[in-house]
Design a protein that fits this description.
mainly alpha; 3-stranded antiparallel β-sheet; 7 helices
């Protein structure tokens, strides 16, 4: 994953909370559709932090989806047109999400940082000042 500092914070914030609520029907989806769905969910998750975090949603969604596909949270098959399709695997997704939550250094700082951690962190990485 090659994400900017802001994107890393958006990724961590999504993984810490809203990613726990992700539940996608177990039909086969094209990669682009999954990226759009997750980007929309990331945008909603970080909307309270302003325009810059929202603008990073597509890059974060792509990194998140790529990681989860690599770890088996989405099964992959070739379709008859030569492309790939992906199917959500809830058990593998939950296990990998827990692993991500346990290993993310920003989430470890957030756990120690108190209730104002995220607002301060996003203010710092976006160059905004807290009101």
């Amino acid at each position: 994953m090659s994400l900017s500092e802001l994107e890393q914070h958006v990724f961590a914030y999504y993984v810490a909370g809203h990613a726990n609520e992700l539940n996608i029907a177990t039909r086969w989806y094209p990669y682009g559709e999954l990226t759009l769905v997750i980007a929309d969910k990331v945008t909603v998750a970080v909307r309270k932090f302003g325009r810059k975090p929202r603008a990073s949603a597509k890059a974060v969604a792509t990194a998140f989806l790529d990681h989860m596909i690599e770890k088996g949270a989405w099964a992959t098959k070739q379709n008859e047109f030569g492309g790939q399709m992906h199917q959500f695997q809830a058990d593998k997704y939950k296990a990998e999400l827990k692993a991500l939550q346990a290993s993310d250094p920003i989430l470890q700082k957030a756990a120690a940082g108190g209730p104002d951690f995220w607002e301060k962190a996003f203010d710092e990485v976006t160059g905004q000042t807290a009101a």
